[in-house]
Amino acid sequence: MTVIVETPVTLHRPVKSVSKTPQRWPVAEVQALLDLPLPELMHRAQTVHREHHDPTEMELATLLSIKTGGCPEDCGYCPQSVHYETGVPATKMMTPEAVREAVLGAKAAGASRFCMGAAWRAPTDRDLEKVEELVRVVKEEGLEACCTLGMLTGDQAQRLKGAGLDYYNHNLDTAPELYGNVITTRDYQDRLDTLGHVRGAGIHVCSGGIVGMGESRAGRAGLIAQLANLAPYPESVPINHLVKVPGTPLADEPDLDPLEFVRTVAVARITMPNAKVRLSAGRRQMDESTQVLCFLAGANSIFYGDKLLVTGNPDVEADRALLQRVGLKTRHTFGA
Predict the structure, then answer these.
(1) Stretch 107-123: mean pLDDT, rounded?
(2) Is 115 tagged catalytic?
(3) Residue 147 catalytic?
(4) Beta strands 144-148 and 329-330: pairing type?
(5) Catalytic pick from 44, 113, 115, 294?
(6) What is the pLDDT of residue 282?
(7) Any bridge partners for residue 205, and if so which?
(8) Whether 75 is catalytic
């Protein structure tokens, strides 16, 4: 299959050097996997998946925006940035009572992990004090707790660990050499430093990226190689499909071939065999056949709920019906 190399939207900023990591997966080898005939790639991914996971089990995670909009970063895909006119208003942080209500709803719907996102470049210590309380709310209700709050210091990561946080999400977004094409307000090294602080605090790492931002297949290989070469690689790897929000610089990117997304999932599974590979943003724009191919390629986690931060997600009933038709089980019984 011929792959068109697209030109990403450029925000005109050079990429600074990033940390060197052991090259267990050189980019060329990752791209060679992406280039395999699809039947061969799917067979390899399914084989690895079965060696490390129950192929009939799906993890359900719910994502809630606890503080929306007003972010000073200029991520070219994000409707919460103050740099773009997207109609997303800035809000104050949710109260513990409101978060508890959302946690109970997610638990009743079958979710086992509850993720909280806040639109910050980095939390202040006062912000973090409030987040610590929300983490304790999630843990009191018996769910795994995850946060995505922007950049963290080592001390902040230790505080979140002390509050009971299980996972911290901080996506690498794209390959190192493409990062400056999408974001200009932080460096790739900033991302890696935060992941190092999270790992150093003993919190599980959740880190993935976004595909469909105009990158070539080689760019997707670079992203997966960067993730797979982290020591250790993330316990959770969310694979996001770009949601093209009007008003953002990436709103007019050409659609990605759905099979390229499937290939990305398959190679993430092969290179990070023990990780949960999660279908994240952009799932509502996929048809059910594409989603099922992703499950066969090794995706064993989905974001579950009608909304992901400020963008849409398949409704709960549609997801339940699809999982039941495919014969996938979840950690918690629906409605329990």
Answers:
(1) 88
(2) yes
(3) no
(4) unpaired
(5) 115
(6) 85
(7) 168
(8) yes
C-alpha atoms less than 13 angstroms from C-alpha of 265 in its C-beta half-sphere: 33
Q: Which two tokens stand for residue 85?
A: 């006119």
Per the listing, tokens 């999982």 go with 323
Q: Which two tokens stand for residue 125?
A: 């210590």
Whether 78 sits among the annotated catalytic residues: the reply is yes
Between CA 47 and CA 42 the distance in angstroms is: 8
CA atoms within 13 A on the CB side of 100: 8
What pTM, to 2 d.p., does this model score? 0.86
Residue pair 131/116 in contact (Cβ under 8 Å)? The answer is yes
Per annotation, catalytic residue among 44, 78, 113, 263:
78
Given phi > 0 = left and psi -120 to 50 = alpha, else beta, which region is 152?
A: beta
Buried b vs exposed e over 82-120: b needs ≥16 C-beta within 10 Å? ebbebebeeeebbeeeebbebbeebbebbbbbbbbbbbb
At 143-155, the pLDDT tens digits run 999 999 999 999 9
| Mean pLDDT calculated for residue range 295-310 | 77
Are residues 165 and 144 in contact, defined by beta-carbon separation less than 8 angstroms? no
Query: Catalytic: which of 24, 136, 191, 206?
Result: 206
Place of tokens 């925006």: 65
